[in-house]
Amino acid sequence: AAFYVGVVTNAAFASIFAANEQRVLRDVRDHEVVHRDFFAAVLGSARIPNLTPNFSSVNFGDRNSVLETARTFEDLGVSAYNGAARYIANLTYLGIAGKIVSVEARHAAAIRDLLAPRTGSFAPKAFDDANSPQTVLNAADPFIVENITAINT
Fold first, then answer.
1. Which of 34, 48, 150, 151 has its CA 20 to 30 A from that of 87?
2. If you ran DSSP here, which 8-state letter would residue 111 be given?
3. Own/partner pairs for 7-10, CB < 8 Å, 24+ apart?
């Protein structure tokens, strides 16, 4: 959520993205904020506390830098939900996770289409990755100041 908030509030946003692209990125931001707030409410004190993002590697004034980073986050999100499903014992929460991962997959496809319109890159594989929590955290590490380790999975 923090990444997309940064994208849409950046001074260059309106100049580097066409109107239809701005709409997509605002929608993705809105979805990610809902997901973040949902997890904060459901997990309560068991959630990962607020993290300090490190977006120093992202040039928010460059369309490709923003979209490449967005693709990284969306693909990582899909792999995180897919990998975490086996740890979710509560069927209600598993169903909700399934609903969220389907939205994340649409985000990934939309971002990929912005990068390479009307090509096969929107869904490059028949099956998405399913990564372990530690693999996901390792991939996210460059974008987070705090050190996070998966325990009790």
1. 34
2. H
3. 7/60, 7/66, 7/70, 10/60, 10/61
CB 61, CB 10: distance < 8 Å? yes
Listed in sequence order, the residues at least 6 apart from 29 whose beta carbon sits closer than 8 Å to its beta carbon are 1, 4, 5, 7, 8
SS3 at position 101:
helix
Strand partners of residue 56: none
What are the structure tokens assigned to 100, written together? 């969220």
The tokens describing 144, both together, are 């987070």
Nearest CA to 55 among 111, 115, 106, 2? 2
| Beta bridge pairs of residue 14 | none
Read off the pTM: 0.92
List, in sequence order, the alpha helices (H) in the chain.
2-9, 13-16, 19-43, 63-84, 91-115, 133-140
Q: To which residue do tokens 């971002």 refer?
A: 111
Kindly report, residue by residue over 52-100, the tens digit of the pLDDT: 999 999 999 999 999 999 999 999 999 999 999 999 999 999 999 999 9
Confirm if 28 and 110 have CB atoms less than 8 A apart: yes
